[in-house]
Amino acid sequence: MNLSLYQRLALSLVLVFVLMLWVFYWWSSELHQRTTLEAEQRLHIDLAAHLVHDNPLLAQGVYDYQGLENLFHTLMVLGPSFEFYYLDPQGRILTYSAEPQKIRRQSVNLAPILQLIEHPDTVPVLGDDPRNPNGRKIFSAAAVKHADQLQGYLYMIIGGEAYDSVFAKVRDSHGLQTIALWASLALAFLLVVLLGLFRFITRPLLRLTRSMQAFRSNQRLPAADNWCATSHNEVHQLGCAFKQMTTQINSQFEQLQQLDQQRRTLLADLSHDLRTPLANLQGYIETLALNDQHLSSEERRRFVEISLKNARNLKRLIDQIFELAYLEGGQVTLNQEAFPLGELLYDVVAKFSLKANDKGVKLEIVPGQCQYQVFADIAKLERVLTNLLENALRHTPKGGRVIIRMLLGKDSVRVEVEDTGVGIGRNELAYIFDARYRASNSREDKSLHAGLGLAISKKLMALLESDLRVKSELGKGTCFSFDLKQVF
């Protein structure tokens, strides 16, 4: 049988409540009985001794058993809660005031009698009940002596059979039953209140359990699942934390789905880009292999150059794919050091000076002389500058300018690569760092471009704990910028 937490708590509460009620009832009954017996026995402990001392039949040692029986009968009429017995020194019952058929014992154990006579402070002491073969009751006892000779014992049962009968009737009376009924109702009401309190306490936990089950089933929380973030209830705090966690998990899951879709699109695009140079390379090589004897040296040399160009484009594309994969996989190590930024900028510009002259584009470094020391990975920074300059020259027409500008900050140096090219539309700026994205106004040249340069540069700058930013306006040019740590 599967029980909920509330049901288990409620069942446990009922069982514990019943057990505590029984223990309390047993303990209170035992305590009440013991204190009643002790009080009764202390109150009448000397009664037997007074009767022996004041009664002529017992004081003079004259054992008129018929007279004693009449005396006992008279005393029982005056005190119906007492039973009187006269015992010999061995504990045998010699006379009593009762109907013979009611006496179930012929003798009484003397050990409790001697204990009470010698140590009266040890009450309550229970002795044998002559009317019950297995019963024991409190009593008062005294030794009967004549001329210092022990003649027997006066044995008085306190709370005899008549007392028990009357007490049982009173206990079973309507008044006591009414009191017991009200006490039971009060306890039942208390139990219901406690069960309601348990229900109130465990209700948020039940809500949280249902929310977890719903999230496990469909990855979504119930629409009405609102938790009080300012509550001091730990379950509400746990519910808020769980809701935040599920929101983050859903967001990450959606990002993973988008990333997976982007990877699929990137793979399809790259497959197409790889197919083009491979097909060209294969075609020209087959032409050389099949028509080698019929080709002139000029044609053969032109086919070889075209094949080499396609092979270089293919290698370049594969290198970029591997580089982006390593960056996304976090498999890149940094070798950062302090170096003069100006020297690196002039080295990079020198690589593109011939290409810039051929296109009629002017390359500038502003300021022309600088002694800024920065802390970065030279190879990674050179790769970023190379990508940015390559893009700038590709999209800048003849007569344009590409400026590399350095701006000194408080503890950093900002590097800007600005061109006067075609620019990028405002609605496309947010996507230019995505792999394989190409702006609608991209300029084509004779080289193959995979569209991975800016994506690689963005990730490289993130590794260098910087951010690659862009500003652009259609028809006026584009400016990429990033910050580097300055070394003093």
Describe this structure in words.
- The two termini are about 75 Å apart.
- α1 (about 5-45) runs antiparallel to α7 (about 175-220), α9 (about 295-330) packs parallel to α12 (about 455-465) and α10 packs parallel to α11.
- The protein has helices at about 5-45, 45-55, 55-60, 65-80, 110-120, 160-170, 175-220, 235-290, 295-330, 340-360, 380-395, 455-465; strands at about 80-85, 95, 125-130, 135-145, 150-160, 335-340, 360-365, 375, 400-410, 410-420, 470-475, 475-485.
- It is built from twelve helices and twelve strands.
- The chain is rod-shaped, with a radius of gyration of 55 Å.
- It is α+β, with helices and mostly antiparallel strands and about 500 residues long.
- Strands 6, 7, 8, 9, 10, 11 and 12 form a seven-stranded mixed beta sheet that branches. The chain has a five-stranded antiparallel beta sheet with strand order 2-1-5-4-3.
